[in-house]
Write a structure and sequence with these properties.
The protein is mainly alpha-helical. It is built from 4 helices and 2 strands. Helices cover 59% and strands 4% of the residues.
Length: 105
């Protein structure tokens, strides 16, 4: 359907719903939307979080960039969401188990 042929509100809704597919409504929070990001694994996801934090640090400590043009808070919030906190607890438990095995030897 081309935009010059839209004549009714229903046609516009059909046209818009076909094009607006990137954001999905969040199930647990009213008014918020979700965007899916695909990763090759935890390592890939964590590397992105580290790189985002490094980028923010470069902006904060750089004299060359105008820090007002970049809202660092939103970038850091994204980085925090990428850190696998629950999975880190599993790594801690595995580490304790391995450490205990080494002590028993």
């Amino acid at each position: 359907m081309e935009t010059d042929k839209i004549k009714t509100l229903e046609e516009f809704k059909d046209f818009a719903s076909y094009h607006f597919r990137l954001l999905k409504p969040a199930k647990d929070k009213d008014g918020e939307s979700v965007r899916e990001i695909k990763f090759y694994g935890y390592s890939d996801m964590t590397c992105l979080a580290v790189n985002l934090i490094r980028m923010c640090l470069n902006v904060v400590y750089s004299d060359e960039l105008d820090n007002r043009e970049i809202y660092i808070g939103s970038v850091l919030e994204l980085a925090l969401q990428l850190i696998p906190s629950a999975e880190i607890e599993v790594l801690d438990e595995i580490y304790r188990m391995l450490d205990k095995r080494n002590e028993d030897k």
